Amino acid sequence: MFFSVGYTSSWAIPARGPLLMADQMKLICDRAAFVEAVQIAAAVVATRGNVPALLCIKLTAKDNRLYLQAADKDIALEIPVASVDVKSPGEALVPAERLSQIARECAGTTLAFESNKSILSIKADGMRFNVNGYDPKEFPAPPQINSKPECTVSAATFRKLVGRTIFATAVENNRYAIGGVLIERVGKRMRLVGTDGRRLAVAKGDCISATETDSSVIVPTKALNLLNRLAVDPEDPIEIAKADGRLVFTIGSGADAAKMVTSLIEGTFPPFDDVIPKEHDRRVTCDVAMLTAAVRRSSLLTSEQSKGVRMSFTATQLTLSSSSPDVGDSEITMPLEGFQGEPIEVGFNPGYIVDALKIIDAPEVTIELKATNKPGVLRIGQEFTYVIMPLNV
Predict the structure, then answer these.
(1) Confidence of residue 142 (pLDDT cuts 50, 70, 90)
(2) Same domain for 65 and 31?
(3) Are 214 and 131 members of one domain?
(4) How far is CA 182 from CA 35, 41, 150, 242, 365, in A?
(5) Is 47 found in the same domain as 60?
(6) Does the residue 4 lie in any domain?
(7) What dihedral angle (degrees, nearest 10) is formed by the CA atoms of 299, 303, 307, 313?
(8) Residue of 117 and 90 predicted with greater confidence
(9) Please, what is the average pLDDT of the chain?
(10) 37 in a domain, yes or no?
(11) 170 in a domain, yes or no?
């Protein structure tokens, strides 16, 4: 937990240097840029709690930028907004939900902010809002961190790795270790793993640079979802450092870099290497778009009681069928080329297959099968492996 009752902060964002703040903050900023930043910051803030400051976003105007800070018990975030004309530096602390709603509803291309004690005035075309806030000093002050990055990865690579694994993590946190994504790094080689116990997604990629010290941590899915929203420029570097049992992400460079600190999930990640089948008797490469359409159509007549779809592979054709006493039945066929092995029939949850196909950015995917009662595997070369447990249908 990052915060104690007495507001003592244990999270850390690298300090940008001391600045003497004026009594009143005055600035004009681009509305679209502010809306984008405030929506990400608001996603961090808890919806309820006993500490009013942690339901707020802190605004700090300085150096012709506006910095937004938000935090909950596990994550701390700082986002810079560069399209700003700071008339007078200063700070404000206002409820996140109100600030986000007002920013979205304002008209015009710019927003004007002015703070007076604990009140923040927001003006746009024909609009003015005075929002009651709090003393900015009530927001936990982040101590300085001097940890050096353990590795640097491009935003494009990291977003792809997260996207290929986070969907497979557990929604319920009964087994907390699988409520996050395992991030392993050996040298410059990075591997991310997500599982919910019924499926397993493994994605691999390369770092731009890395230390010789290898690393293995479990990162909460909320933090990774936020990180993907921050890393919008594929060319941006993402520096990853570890400090006091937390990860520090720096997205971008210089004064325009966003920073996020997240706690890590304690516990032992399941021995997933043992789950990935080492040998298969059947293999075929399918068009991703065609396979996605066929699986979706075959799932139209499934139900809560009968979720599975039977997939029958032959040398020339894949037949997908479903049947539910309360709903009806369906049969979908699609042609196959290059199927290797004897015909096989196996049942899978169609939703699990579609989830994987949605994040595949390649035109084709390879399907590997062993037996009716053995897991199936979807692959994209050596960079993505998806294991799905079979169903009795």
Answers:
(1) low
(2) yes
(3) no
(4) 32, 24, 16, 15, 24
(5) yes
(6) no
(7) -40
(8) 90
(9) 90
(10) yes
(11) yes
In this structure, are strands 282-287 and 309-313 parallel, antiparallel, or unpaired? unpaired
Q: 335: domain range?
A: 276-388
> Residue 242 is encoded by which pair of tokens?
């570890």
- In percent, how much of the chain has pLDDT > 90? 77
- Which pTM does this prediction carry? 0.89
> In this model, does residue 83 exceed pLDDT 90?
no
Whether 202 and 285 map to the same domain: the answer is no
Among 91, 131, 106, which residue's Cα sits nearest to residue 33?
A: 106
Report the run of H or E that residue 319 belongs to, with start and end. strand 317-324
Residue 296 lies in a domain: yes
Dist CA 106 CA 332 (whole Å): 49
Q: What is the CATH number of the domain that holds 167?
A: 3.10.150.10
> Which ranges constitute the DSSP H helices of the chain?
31-44, 96-105, 155-163, 221-230, 288-298, 350-359
Overall average pLDDT of the 363-369 stretch: 97
- The set of residues, in sequence order, having a beta carbon less than 8 Å from that of 161 and lying 6+ positions away, is 190, 192, 203, 204, 205
Domain boundary among 258, 273, 288: 273
Q: Tokens 């960079």 appear where?
A: 383
Residue 132 corresponds to which amino acid? N
Domain termination site, one of 273, 301, 335: 273
- Cα 320 to Cα 337: distance, rounded to the nearest angstrom: 16
Give buried/exposed letters for 222-259 (b at 16+ CB in 10 A, else e): bbbebbbbbbeeeebbbbbbbeeebbbbbbbeeeebbb
Confidence band, pLDDT 50/70/90 cuts, at residue 171: confident
